[in-house]
Every structure is written in structure tokens, then in C-alpha cells.
Amino acid sequence: MGTVLPLLLLGFVLGMRHATDPDHVVAVSTIVSRERTFRGAALIGALWGLGHTVTITLVGGAIVAFGLVIPKRVELSMELGVAVMLIALGAMGVAGTLQKFHEIAHGDHSHAERTLVTRLGRAGVARALFVGVVHGMAGSAAVALLVLTTVREPTFAMLYLALFGLGTVAGMMTLTTLLAAPFALAARRGGELTTWLSRATGVASVALGAYLVYEIGVVERLFTR
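Below the sequence we write its predicted C-alpha cells.
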């Protein structure tokens, strides 16, 4: 027990660290860019972490409990799903920004702002949960293998996964709250600056997604394996 407790604490810490992976940061940035409050941003982080934790616990738990082996091609395919999702999120972010440009150009400020905030707020919550689930599927095999190399007892291994998930939730809530700061400040200074920031996160998401597609498909040879 004396050696297990530090490992469980390490699981929580690694979960917080896991939340700051570049693909996670870019993905949630495209969603947080639509939020104007820190509370809303923290909620998005919590939902992302919840979705991530559910799949990590289920898939990773099955690997730990039943000794399942995920083929390399399947693992790469799940990672490719994350890359495609980043491209889709970025494209949606840019498209939403362009739509707002159109509304501003036509002078319908109050109606456009009201409907846009309502729609993107609800959609952002749904996307946060879904994005967390997809990211959890892609990372579950690696996390489970890490657990198997450190914790042999299945009960403690499952507890490790749960604490890893809680750490991810805590880390992502902190991260999304920090990410919301520049967008909230930009919103106070004017809608145009917010629009450009949202557009930048969308472009960054598309660029990272395209790079990951190349890495997974060509360098890791998923397309030719």
C-alpha cells in the first residue's frame, strides 16, 4: 500500500499533465473561443474531461482487466479520427467566424449576437463532451499500457485510471479557464478582435489536424500498412 499510494497520486498528476497535450489544447481552444465567461469555459473543460475519462476508463479498463491487445492499425485509426476531428472543428470555427463577418457587414448586430451566443453556447457544450470522448479513445491504449507497467493489481490499476481521469478533468478545467481570458478581454474591446482570435484558433486546428494526418497516415504508414 505504501508504494501504491504515490503511484495513484502520480496518476492524478499525469492526468493534469495529459490535459495540456497540444492536440487537446487546440481542440478545446476552438470551442472556448465562443465563450465569454470563465464559468462557461470551466464547464467546457469539465465536460471534455468527463468524456475523456469515460472512454479512458472503459477502454483502458478493458485492456487492464481482460488483457486485451489493440492492434497497431486500430490504434492509429483512432488517432487519425482525432486528426480529422481537429480539421472539422477548425473548419467549423472559421465558417462560424465568416458568418459573423457577414452579419456584422449587414448591420444586424443585436440579433446576430443574441442568436450566435445561444447557438454556439449549446453546441460548444455538446462538442466538448464529444471531443473528450474521441480523444479518450485515441489515448486509452497508451494510458492502459502505462498502468500495466506500474500497477499489477487490477483493482489498483482501475483506481489509477479513475484518478488519471480526475486529473484530466482538473487540468482541462484550469486550462480552459485560462484560455477564456484573452477571448473575454477581446469581447470587451470589440467584436472584431474576438472574430480574428476565433479565426486564428480555427486555422491552427486545421493546420495541426492536417499535420497529424500526414504523420499518422504517411510517417506511421497507416495508409500503406
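Residues 109-150 form the longest helix (42 residues).
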